[in-house]
């Protein structure tokens, strides 16, 4: 842990083990034990945070109160008592795993926080945490990637009258673009809605990148696939 008095060729071993560079200061290398694992676990935790939030959104928006999306029967399970119910088990488990992953950096921090310089057997307890951490995030990413390729979006959902007011902002913006001050347009829209005089315009055609209605479903799926890969 503190170097060697044998005249070993460290450049040779660095090259043979395909390391990018040599850690010249051997004491710094030794002091990195635990810190490297903690940094890596924070990165994995961050991925888990994003993936866990996605899993939560999927579990929420595929329930019958929203019905925005659905998945094939092969990726869901039935209820123990309600035969019509489709449970998003895959994403519930991804959510649980990802929530658990976010606690790993704290566990590593607690194991290493009061260790003096040098190597101590305590660091052995960090290894199983890191191994399971890496395995779990890989599994979650693989299952999310496999499942999301089969997501079915309810493209007719906004035809439901309960979503009429989603289109109020577009109508408001049209008034502004026609020359009406935003404050006046805002007031007019509020009054029209209150008097039940608002008629939504659903044939929205935006042109800027990433805007609502500008990407077709297949393009969205392709972009999600690239992001996951």
Structure characterization notes:
The protein has a two-stranded antiparallel ribbon. The longest helix is centred in the N-terminal third of the chain and has 27 residues, at 35-61. 52% of the residues lie in helices and 2% in strands. The radius of gyration is 27 Å and the shape is elongated. It is built from 9 helices and 2 strands, in the order αααβαααβααα. The chain folds into 2 domains: 32-153, Up-down Bundle (Fumarase C, Chain A, domain 2); 158-228, no CATH class. It has 229 residues and is an all-alpha fold. Helix 5 (104-112) packs antiparallel against helix 6 (126-148) and helix 6 packs antiparallel against helix 9 (217-228).
List keywords for this structure.
229 residues; mainly alpha; Fumarase C, Chain A, domain 2; two-stranded antiparallel sheet; 9 helices
Topology:
Layout: H1 10-16, H2 26-31, H3 35-61, E1 69-70, H4 89-101, H5 104-112, H6 126-148, E2 152-153, H7 168-177, H8 182-194, H9 217-228
Helix pairs in contact: 3-4, 3-5, 3-6, 4-6, 5-6, 6-9, 7-8
């Amino acid at each position: 842990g503190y170097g060697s008095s044998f005249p070993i060729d460290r450049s040779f071993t660095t090259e043979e083990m395909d390391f990018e560079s040599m850690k010249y200061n051997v004491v710094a290398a030794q002091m990195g034990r635990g810190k490297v694992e903690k940094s890596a676990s924070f990165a994995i935790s961050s991925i888990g945070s994003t993936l866990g939030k996605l899993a939560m959104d999927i579990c929420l928006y595929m329930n019958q109160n929203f019905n925005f999306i659905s998945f094939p029967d092969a990726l869901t399970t039935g209820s123990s008592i309600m035969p019509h119910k489709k449970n998003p088990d895959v994403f519930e488990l991804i959510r649980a795993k990802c929530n658990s992953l976010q606690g790993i950096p704290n566990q590593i921090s607690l194991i290493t926080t009061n260790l003096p310089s040098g190597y101590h057997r305590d660091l052995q307890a960090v290894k199983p945490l890191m191994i399971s951490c890496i395995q779990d995030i890989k599994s979650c990413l693989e299952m999310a990637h496999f499942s999301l390729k089969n997501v079915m979006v309810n493209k007719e959902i906004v035809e439901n009258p309960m979503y009429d007011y989603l289109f109020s902002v577009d109508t408001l913006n049209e008034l502004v673009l026609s020359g009406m001050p935003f404050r006046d347009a805002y007031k007019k829209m509020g009054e029209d809605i209150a008097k039940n005089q608002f008629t939504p315009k659903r044939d929205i055609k935006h042109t800027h990148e990433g805007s609502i209605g500008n990407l077709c479903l297949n393009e969205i799926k392709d972009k999600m696939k690239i992001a996951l890969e």
